[in-house]
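HUMAN:
Could you generate one sequence with tokenized structure?
ASSISTANT:
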Amino acid sequence: MTPRMVVCKHPKITNSDDFFFSGLNIPRNTSNPVGSTVTPVNAAQVPGLNTRPISLVRIDYAPNGGLTPTLTLILMPLRS
């Protein structure tokens, strides 16, 4: 376990998929009352990040939803 309570995967059973997330390039469904969808990426989705405090998020906004029409953001905190 890491200090963030994420289970470490044994190095002998890791593979390249543990360091890859396919999906930040895919627009998500925004037809909901809020008019937006958040796609998080952290150690839960990318097991290779289990000891790193790295998170990304993609936010898709529907036309006339969220802040501006047809806006997509990718956020990455630089310091936690």
The mean pLDDT is 75.
